[in-house]
Amino acid sequence: NYWKILIFILIFIYIIYSNIIILYNSSKNKTISLNKQDINSNKELYKNISQIYINQNNLELKNYIEQFFVGLLEGDGTITVDYISELKKRVRIIIAIKNLQENQQMIDLLVKYIGGRKTLERNNTYVVWIASSRSDLAKVFGIFAKYPLLTTRKKLQLEFALEFINDNTYLSKDKFIELRNNKYNKQSNLIDYYNNSFIPPIYFPGWLSGFIEAEGSFKLIKSENNTIHTSQFIIGQNYDKFILKSILNYFDASNNTISYDNKKYYRIHISNQKNRILINKHFELYPLLGYKYSQYIWWKMNH
What is the pTM for the complete model shown? Predict the structure, then answer.
C-alpha cells in the first residue's frame, strides 16, 4: 500500500508539473527542436529536422517526444504483467524495434526524455526500450494520464496492468492466467463505441508520427518503363478501424477506401498529390525520429 500511494503521488505531481508547462508553452508559437547533443551521432539523418526546429525550448521537445512515444508504443509496444509468485507480479512496458542505427538513436531519446532503459535482444537483431522500475513506471503512467492511449488493445493492457501495480494480494497462478486470458473481453464493445464516437485529441498529430514510425510505410510504384509511376503512404491497424478513419480525415482523404482482412486488419493507402502535400507538411512539424524518417525522405525525394 505504501508503494501504491507513492506511485500515485508521483503521477499526480508529474501531471500537475507537465500541465503547467503545456499551458506556458501554448502561448508561444513554437515547434520542437532536436539540439546538437540529440542529433550529433547521425548528422545526415537529422539534418533536415535540425534546420527546421531551431532555438526552441527543451521542454517543448520533451512534450513532443512524450506524444510520439505513446503513438510508437501503440504500434510497436506492449504492456505486460508477469507472474512471479502468489504475492508478486511484475509490470513491464516494452517497445521492440529492428536494431538499426536510426532506431537506436530514437530509443536513446526515449531514455533521455522519458526514462526506462535500452537493451539488445534476439541475437542483437532488436533494440528494446523497457520501463520496469517503480520510478520509470510512475513516469510512464503520468504520460498516459496526460496523453491517454488511443487503441483499444493498449487501453485494455494498461487497465490489466494497473490492477497489479505494487499489489501484493494473494493470487494463484491459475487465477492470474484466467484474468490475463480475459483482459480483452471488453474490446469489441470498446471498438463499437469508438467507431461511432471517437474524436482525435489535441495531441493526435504528435501521437500520429509515433504511430506511423511503428506502423506506416512509404511505397514507390514503378511503371513499365521503370520510372516512378506513383507513390503511396500505407498504414494498417488490427481491429481499430476508427484510428484509420481519423488518419484519413487528418490528411483530408476521407473519400479513400479502408480495406480489411476478415474485419480484423484494416489498411489505408494515400497517394494523390494533394494528400502528399499534407503529409509532407505534417512531418515538417511533427518529425519521424527513427529509421522510418530515412524511408520517408527517400519516398519524398523520388516522387
Answer: 0.83
